[in-house]
Amino acid sequence: MASERAEAAVTARRRIPTQARSRRKVEHILDTAARLVVERGVESLTTRDIALASGVPVASLYQYFADKEGVLLALAERDMAEMDAQVVTDLGSLRVLTLEGLVRTTMEAFVSVYHRRRAFVEIYLRGRSNAAVHQFGREHNARVAQMLRDFAIEQGLAQPTMPQASATLAVEIGDRVFQLAYEHDDDGDRELVEEGITLVTAYLERYATPEGIAGIAR
């Protein structure tokens, strides 16, 4: 499963703490790393910088993270989990479901997390040259595509014959839109985001049911 491979990519690079004190230390390290990423970018960041700014010995940092990529992946995992939760919450609040609403709500949920998590923009949207982050992102996109396709079909918005490849491509297109929108703008280029929503919606509506176009009251 894509989600299992993505999780393995993170856990293989760090030890998951079980004690509350250790969990707080890891969260502190991650919060510090997130601040440094925003200040300095992904490429110049080092584990020594993170340890020094966190006020912990380098050896202590290595107890939880094998290397810098382990820290970056842990940050990406944390913020992606928040993003997934935001999508579920926002979709659950819709009173009328349409395929267009599904696309818009999902992409707007991503935008709201990008605004809250500046380091995620640097790591995930601008730091994709890092091989570990790139692979983790692809795994996450595959999982999101599967989830959204299943949801659209279960809710009667899309035909059961919608290919998984189409859902995957739609998510990858949306991902690329965000990369372009946030390439030089910390707040994101709103026009590009809107165009991306229109593009992905038009692509997926080929598989929409009549109810998926007109709307389904909840």
From TrEMBL:
SUPFAM superfamilies: Homeodomain-like. GO terms for molecular function: DNA-binding transcription factor activity; transcription cis-regulatory region binding. It comes from the Bacteria. Residues 23-83 form the HTH tetR-type domain. Residues 46-65 bind DNA. Keywords: DNA-binding, Transcription, Transcription regulation. This is Transcriptional regulator, TetR family.
